[in-house]
């Protein structure tokens, strides 16, 4: 009832598919004079780290464009509203994008959208999912969820005695299970990654210093986080000395969101400009770099927030293990190398303006890719998933066709 080709070109009824909390900075001089923040302005603690609020028939998202100055939830009552929120980056992070997309469909289905009749219901589900995939194409999680959920709807509709009500309920329940699974997977990633990193970077014991990029925490997932989940686990084990987080221009997810999470949970951390990362590695004894991923392909090449590639190069130069932390749902073994990944390009105004105020000379040209691709040979620590930590060359054998976007499913 729902052909796989439906996720490419279709017409859609929804429309065309198209002051931060303070952290202490490094003091000049030798390592040891660094004074990482350990909580900062506790005014941040009046806000929440819950990016997605869902109950049957109701979905709200935390508008992350307003953080850390404001904490405001926005109701999402339709697939169209979810698409717009994802596209505008009110919600971001590959896992969270897929969750909000699928949960918005569940809200519409709970309200009675789709049908009448099984064929019309399945067509509605397929069209909605196909449309959601177009919001931000680089992250694979939404595309995989769309495939799996559309297939589920079609299979349930073909069962003997199937009813519209039963299919609707099964699709809604699947999305709710997806929310719970993401949180479980994140905790596994955090624990597996923390122990692997400690064995590699601190085999004799002691604490580690970790550098991370963008935001990969509770605000990018159902909770806990991926790369930031590893740092959380290290902190829980009492093995984290402190973390560096990059500001992550041009959207400043590191300064606005990751710093906010560190302050909220009293994890010792220091904010640096993107251009300071190599210097931090050279002067402050960084033990490991841990980043997230929006898509990992068969040879281990990884698409992540732009700026990741240069961090991997700097880490390799300094002999620092470089890790990628991502759920298996972010792994797409259908693509052989990173050259096949479609890289989203964002409007130039995101780089030339901050909060609507121009900071660049009028008339200057702008190139603003949202992601870059880190070659697999620079991922020297490993790829951390909920199933284990793998070297890039081990990924295909370890995960197999179960995570290929067009391959068989579990």
Question: What descriptive keywords fit this protein?
Answer:
2 domains, 11 helices, alpha/beta, Four Helix Bundle (Hemerythrin (Met), subunit A), four-stranded mixed sheet, 410 residues
Weakly predicted, low-confidence segments: 3-33, 39-48, 405-410
Radius of gyration: 21 Å
Based on DSSP secondary structure assignment, what is the total number of beta strands? 16
Roughly what fraction of the amino acids lie in strands? 5-15%
CATH 4th-level superfamily of the largest domain: Translation initiation factor eif-2b, domain 2
Give the N-terminus to C-terminus distance in angstroms. 21 Å
Question: How does CATH name the architecture of the largest domain?
Answer: 3-Layer(aba) Sandwich
Strand and helix order = EEEHHHHHEHEHEHEEEHEEHEEEEEH
- Number of structurally distinct domains: 2
Q: What does the overall shape look like?
A: globular
In spatial order, strands of the major sheet run 6-5-4-7-10-15-16
Site (Transition state stabilizer): 214
Subcellular location: Cytoplasm; Nucleus
Pathway: Amino-acid biosynthesis; L-methionine biosynthesis via salvage pathway; L-methionine from S-methyl-5-thio-alpha-D-ribose 1-phosphate: step 1/6
InterPro entries: IF-2B-related, IF-M1Pi, IF_2B-like_C, Initiation_fac_2B_a/b/d, M1Pi_N, NagB/RpiA_transferase-like
Write up this protein.
36% of the residues lie in helices and 15% in strands. The chain is α/β, with parallel strands linked by helices and 410 residues long. The protein folds into 2 domains: 48-179, translation initiation factor eif-2b, domain 1 (Four Helix Bundle (Hemerythrin (Met), subunit A)), CATH 1.20.120.420; 192-403, Rossmann fold (3-Layer(aba) Sandwich). The protein is globular and about 65 Å long. Residues 3-33, 39-48 and 405-410 have low confidence and may be disordered.
